[in-house]
Amino acid sequence: MRMIKWQPSMQPWEDMDRMMEEFMPTEKHSFVPAIDVYQTKEAVVVETTLAGIKPEDVNISIENDVLTIEGRSEKKSEVDDKEYYRKEIRSGSFHRAIALPTAVKGDNAKAIFDNGVLKIMVPKEERVMPKTIKVQVKSSKGKK
Length: 144
Prior knowledge:
Elements: H1 14-23, E1 30-31, E2 35-39, E3 43-49, E4 58-63, E5 66-73, E6 92-99, E7 110-114, E8 117-123
Parallel strand pairs: 1-6
Antiparallel strand pairs: 2-3, 3-8, 4-5, 5-6, 7-8
């Protein structure tokens, strides 16, 4: 009997997002890049692989703690579609909007494009940064 590894969903709305993306109308030649989203102590980090896409063809915006990545990948080829035995490399436009898991400072975001991987770091708002409060002990010796 074949075993299937159980993998719990990291984000409760992930299945709903995937379903909505399937039903939303898209252009004939479009795709949705896969992303990784994680947090550090200071920032929310989003990474996506955009191999073959020029950084100047990518637009990034943040509004109301929603990160939007969009752009275009053009594949110039002289091969007619009828001649393909298999066609899996995607080209065309892409659009991805991600609700970030916490409040962020969108104006201070930084993006780095390295070897086909886009990494976006968005600092968290001060109000959501963990704060440590030291407990002071008041001595009651000598008082009655």
